[in-house]
Amino acid sequence: MDKPLVFIPGKKFPSISITGSKCWLNCSYCMGYYLKSMDHVFSPKELYDLARYYWKNGAMGMLISGGFTREGKLPIEPYLPIIKDIKNDFKLIINLHIGIVDRKLASNIRYSKIDIVDYEFILDNRVIKDIKHLDKDADDYIKGYEALVNYGPDYIVPHIPLGLKHGIIDWEYMAIDLLSNYDPYLTVFLIFTPTKNTPMAYAKPPKTSDILDIICYGRRRLNGEIALGCMRPWPLRYVVDEILIKNKIVNRIVHPPRRLINKYDLRVIEACCSVPQSILSTIGYGIN
Question: Which of 34, 79, 192, 259 lies deepest, with the highest CB count within 10 Å?
Answer without folding.
Answer: 192
